[in-house]
Amino acid sequence: MFVGESKYDYLSREFFLEQEGIIINDGFVGEVPEFFFYGLDRSKKVLDVGCGTGFWVGQFCKRGIKTCGVDLSQRAV
Question: Which of 3, 36, 38, 66 shows the smallest number of beta carbons within 10 Å?
Answer without folding.
Answer: 38
